[in-house]
Amino acid sequence: MIDYIQLFKDRHLFNQCTNESDLNDLLNKKKIVFYIGFDATADALHAGSLVQLRAIKTLVKHGHKAIVLLGGGTTKIGDPSGKDTSRKILTYKEIQTNIDNFKKIFEHYFRDYKKNITFINNDEWLSQLNYIELLRDLGSFVSINRMLTFESVKERLKREQSLSFLEFNYMILQSYDFLHLNKKYECDLQIGGSDQWGNIVLGMEIISKINKKNAFGLTTPLLTTSSGKKMGKTEQGAVWIDQNKFSSYDFYQYWRNVDDNDVEKLLLIFSDLDKEEIKKIILEDINKAKKKLAYLVTTDCHSEESAQQAEEKAISIFEKNMSDNIDEIDFDINGQIKIFEAITSKNLVSSKSEAKRLIEGGGIKLGDDQIKDINQTITQKDNGKILKIGKKKLFKLKFN
User: Fold this and answer.
1) Is residue 239 part of a domain?
2) What is the per-residue pLDDT for 236?
3) Residues 206, 143: Cα–Cα separation, whole Å
4) How far, in Å, CA of 255 to CA of 97, rounded?
5) What is the pLDDT of residues 113-154, one digit of tens each?
6) What is the domain extent for residue 239?
7) What is the DSSP string of 266-327?
8) Are residues 302 and 340 in the same domain?
9) The model's pTM
10) What is the per-residue DSSP string for 93-120?
11) Do 137 and 14 fall within a single domain?
């Protein structure tokens, strides 16, 4: 017998759950169908979503069946959960493009578990809904008083920030998704991020009232550092899972450079190594443990070949000082350009304020010289020099 709930807790995949003991019993009694929904609000997934992807893997590798719900319908509305403002309303074409990209990412990530994963777009049924029929079917089972108690709603109202009727309907549509999947696919469990708790609970309550069945909900925590800071950002912006948006080398380096205090937790989340083995690796050599983490996550999200190439490149640059493997950055200029303009124009940092902070804090070097003047320039004579941004970002200057 597997203690699934304890497994989720041990691997830092657990935030909260409805009726832990009954869900544990159900998971041991039979191979269940569960689902996680992903709204297509961007053209790719960022590193924060990896916690949920690992949650899916945790269950499917034990034989359970996952429905990855692509939110073609709900994306048209916009989920207010955890947000201070309304989401941008995307065109139908943009949503479909994002969904196509999501599916490619998922199919690659779950390449070893294809038989246990089903992809479904909730636009299949939500776009066919008749509003009057929806009101008749769900209206009397949904309590406005109950909905107002959910944190996603309370926080917005407490801060006197607008919550549109469009968004307020989102939780009803998500509940309807759970109801539909429970009825058609015998889906017993919904997993979501911590901000989805209220929506999941509402769905369970509607299933109990309409389908006369028990359903379950489980949420995963945010991916955070030991200091509580949200992970998945760099000076350049979001750490995207998609190899086309974020190179394997940069992806590898992100995980290679995490804080020492976060390595054990991240290896528990993103590897299948047992706790004692992880502790042993960390005690032996923390840098070896970081390399292990970076290699495993890059292999998972990209490929083992990509992970090997990224690791070899990192070793050649940082351990063997081989500048030939450093990425070049091209400038087509006559005369000179300020360092500040150079790094912001090429998106080497996330913002102008970040560039200013790095320069004034001595976080940028040109060759062996530390840059501290925001007005310092680079010229043709600096061609071939190494520009270092922060602790680990290196670029070779090239002037056309």
Assistant:
1) yes
2) 57
3) 10
4) 29
5) 999 999 999 999 999 988 888 888 887 787 777 777 777 677
6) 233-324
7) HHHHH----HHHHHHHHHH-HHHHHHHHHHHHHHHHT-HHHHHHHHHHHHHHHTS--GGGSP
8) no
9) 0.79
10) HHHHHHHHHHHHHHHHHTTT-GGGEEEE
11) yes
Rounded Cα gap, residues 311 and 326, in angstroms = 13
Total of domains in the chain: 3
For 305, the enclosing helix (H) or strand (E) is helix 304-318
Helix axes 263-270, 50-60, angle to 10 degrees: 50
Q: Look at residues 391, 389, 398 and name the one whose alpha carbon lies nearest to residue 356.
A: 389
Kindly list the distances between the CA atom of residue 97 and the CA atoms of 92, 107, 118, 124, in Å, as whole numbers in the listed order: 9, 16, 19, 16
The per-residue pLDDT of the chain, averaged, comes to: 86
Q: Which of 173, 190, 220 finishes a domain?
A: 220
Provide the 8-state DSSP code for 88. P
> What's the angle, vertex CA 364, arms to CA 382 and CA 374, rounded to 5?
80
Same domain, 181 and 289: no
Tokens 């319908």 found at: 73
> How far is residue 107's CA from residue 56's CA, in Å, rounded to a whole number?
13
378 and 341 part of one domain: yes
Q: Are residues 50 and 187 in the same domain?
A: yes
| Mean pLDDT calculated for residue range 338-353 | 77
- Tokens 């949920």 map to which residue? 52
Residue 257, in any domain of the structure: yes
Cα–Cα distance between 339 and 370 in angstroms, integer? 12
The answer to whether residue 226 is domain-embedded is no
Cβ–Cβ under 8 Å, residues 119 and 68? yes
Looking at 296, 324, 352, the residue that finishes a domain is 324
Is 148 domain-assigned? yes
| Contacts of 262 by beta carbon, 8 Å cutoff, 6+ apart | 225, 226, 231
